[in-house]
Design a protein that fits this description.
It is a single chain. It is globular, with a radius of gyration of 17 Å. It is α/β, with parallel strands linked by helices. A six-stranded mixed beta sheet has the order 6-7-8-3-9-10, with helices on both faces. It has a four-stranded antiparallel beta sheet with strand order 2-1-4-5. The protein is built from seven helices and ten strands. The protein has one domain: P-loop containing nucleotide triphosphate hydrolases (Rossmann fold), CATH 3.40.50. It has helices at about 50-55, 80-90, 105-115, 120-130, 145-155, 175-190, 205, and strands at about 5-15, 20-35, 35-40, 65-70, 70, 90-95, 165, 195-200, 210-215, 220-225. The longest helix is centred in the C-terminal third of the chain and has 18 residues, at about 175-190. Bound molecules: adenosine-5'-triphosphate. Adenosine-5'-triphosphate binds near residues 17, 24 and 46. GO terms for molecular function: ATP binding; ATP hydrolysis activity; transmembrane transporter activity.
C-alpha cells in the first residue's frame, strides 16, 4: 500500500509562447501524504498554479509521471483522466469559476451531472453544510464573493473527492471572509480526512498547514512541519 496520495516524479514542464520557452519545472519531485493539509507559497510566476494543474490532471507533464496512490495518471487517456479528475479531485480557484446562468444549486450539482449522478438533494445538503441554505436558488451575480466561494467549495465536494486543490482561494476576499473560507476548508479536510493542498501568498494562512512548502527556482522545499513523526 502506497502511503502517498499524490506523487510527482522527475517532472519537466515548459510553456512555449511564440519563439520563447519558459521552463517552469525540471526534474521536480514531490509527494503528499494522505489526509494532510499542505500549504504552498512562492513568488509570483514561480509555478504554483502550474504545479496544482499538474497534480490535478489539468495539465500533462512534458516528462516524468504523476502518481495517484501509486497509479500513474500520466498515462491515462484524456477520457480516463477526465473521469479520474471528476471523481478524485475538487478544485477551488481564486475566481470561483461558477457558471453565471446557473443557480447555486445547479452549479453545485454539475460535477455529479457530468458523471450521470445528478442529485439535487445531495447538492442542497452541501450548500447547507457551507451555510448557504438561504441562497440555494441565487445566481452567482446575486451572491457576495465569500458566498460564491462557498458555492465553489460545495461544488468541489460534490463527488466526494479525496483531494482538494485550492489555488489562492482567498485571493479575492477581504481578510475576515478569507479566514472564514480557510476555516471552512480546514474543517471539511479534517472531518472527512481529505488531502488539502492550498496555494497562498498569505503567511498567516500558510502557517496553518500540517506542512508548509515553498516553491522557488522550480524546486519545493519544506519550510515547516507541524507533524510529529
Ligand atoms: N498557458 C501558459 N502559457 C505560457 N506560459 C505560461 C502559461 N501558464 C503559465 N505560464 C508561465 O509559467 C510560469 C509559472 O506560472 P504560474 O501561473 O504557474 O505561476 P504562479 O506561481 O501560480 O504565479 P502567480 O502567483 O502570479 O499566480 C510563469 O512565468 C507564467 O508566465
Amino acid at each position: 500500500m502506497n502511503d502517498y496520495v499524490l506523487e510527482a516524479r522527475a517532472i519537466n514542464k515548459s510553456y512555449v509562447l511564440g519563439s520563447s520557452r519558459i521552463e517552469v519545472f525540471s526534474k521536480l519531485y514531490v509527494r503528499f501524504e494522505e489526509g494532510l493539509f499542505i500549504t504552498i507559497q512562492g513568488a509570483s510566476g514561480s509555478g504554483k498554479t502550474t504545479l496544482l494543474q499538474l497534480l490535478g490532471g489539468l495539465e500533462k507533464p512534458d516528462k516524468g509521471i504523476i502518481l495517484f496512490r501509486g497509479q500513474n495518471i500520466s498515462q491515462f487517456s484524456s477520457k480516463t483522466l477526465a473521469r479520474w479528475r471528476a471523481e478524485t479531485v475538487g478544485f477551488v480557484f481564486q475566481s470561483y469559476y461558477l457558471l453565471p446562468e446557473l443557480s447555486a444549486l445547479e452549479n453545485v450539482d454539475l460535477p455529479a451531472l457530468i458523471l450521470g449522478k445528478g442529485d439535487r438533494k445531495k447538492a442542497t445538503e452541501l450548500l447547507e453544510a457551507v451555510g448557504l441554505e438561504k441562497r440555494i436558488h441565487h445566481r452567482p451575480n446575486e451572491l457576495s464573493g465569500g458566498e460564491q466561494q462557498r458555492v465553489a467549495i460545495a461544488r468541489a465536494l460534490r463527488n466526494d473527492p479525496s483531494i482538494i486543490l485550492a489555488d489562492e482561494p482567498t485571493g479575492n476576499l477581504d481578510e475576515e471572509t478569507g479566514k472564514q473560507i480557510v476555516n471552512l476548508l480546514l474543517s471539511i479536510q479534517k472531518e472527512k480526512n481529505k488531502t488539502l493542498i492550498l496555494v497562498t501568498h498569505e503567511k498567516e494562512i500558510a502557517c496553518l498547514g500540517d506542512k508548509q512548502l515553498l516553491l522557488s527556482n522550480g524546486k519545493l522545499t519544506e519550510i515547516q512541519s507541524n507533524i510529529s513523526n
